[in-house]
Write a structure and sequence with these properties.
By secondary structure, this protein is α+β, with helices and mostly antiparallel strands. About 60% of the residues lie in helices and about 5% in strands. α7 crosses α14. The longest helix has 28 residues. The termini are far apart.
Length: about 375
Amino acid sequence: MKKSVKLSFLFVILSFFIHLYLANQHYNLKYGFEDSKSLCTISDTFNCEAVTLSSYSYFMSLPMAIWGTVFHLIFFVILCLGVFTPEKSYPSRLAFLMAILSAIASACMLAISLSFMSTYCLFCIGLYILSLLNLINYLASREKYSLLRIEDLKEKGVWISLLAIPALAFLFHDMAQKSYGGKIESFLNDNLSQWEISQPQEFANPLLTMGSDNSTFQVVEFADFQCIHCKNSASKLHAFFLSNKDTRFSFYAFPLDGRCNPGATPRDGRSCLMAKAVYCAEKEQKGWSAHRWVFDRFGSPESTNFQQMRGDLQLSDSFTSCLESEEAMKAIEAQSAAGQKAKVDGTPAVFVNGKRLPAGHYIPVLEALYKKIKAQ
């Protein structure tokens, strides 16, 4: 097997598995089964969860990841056929065409990302590079590859290969929807119905905010920094708002600890300390960074190493004195009081446009209500 063919196999196999990972992430995220942060979500700028939730991640109502998975599966089969057929036969020419199509698709997606998005997917960037390398590999090869010829169109294998891409993409998407979806429709309808009859609440002075004050879709979350469900939903909610710029997100700290929340049982005070740290960081416009810093260290002793937080986030000397201040304690007590007034009985608790949305920390529920409100 020639070096150029081996390299093409390598590029195609890597692309297949990256697309497969992204497809799995897409369905997990869309149907609320993703509990951990994605491997390629590292900041607001490089956040593949936000890219997954973006409208630009679809083509013909199918996620781009499933198109890429099927495309590279067919590409792999074509490469295998090329190995077992005479040199420069139509499978080799078809493989060259697939490399060109892959590079064109990558160029289009890159152009869309740079023109219309402010958040990027590192794995997607890796795919763009792989498709470019594969095309360069073909162009630089000593072999004289050529595009499909007129006589190649008489070969059944060509048509089977090309038509199999959309056929398998729609088939796999349908199978994934049935596998992941299950009873999702009734689950969504139940939660949206409860939201409809919920009594509206008024909220003021959130700890953190994101988005426009004039948004028609305003979400409020009450969360405890030692709540595992709050930790698991944090990056998903953040990605939702990054991908939907016409929304507003308000975050309230609701420590389930009587030391700063009179409605809760007294505990070790760690939740209160974490909430105060985020409050003090927000005084320097770094509250969201502190929010992410604490959740990233969930369950670790480092989560209350606030001197390390100060260094990592480059906070000023006043951060330390703020942590020990009465002002910070009163601010968190006020946050807790807002939750008590709204009858928050557990975390995470999500409200949309003032009304409680059960399971609102699940992306499918949030997206369903978002579409419903936007359609009105």
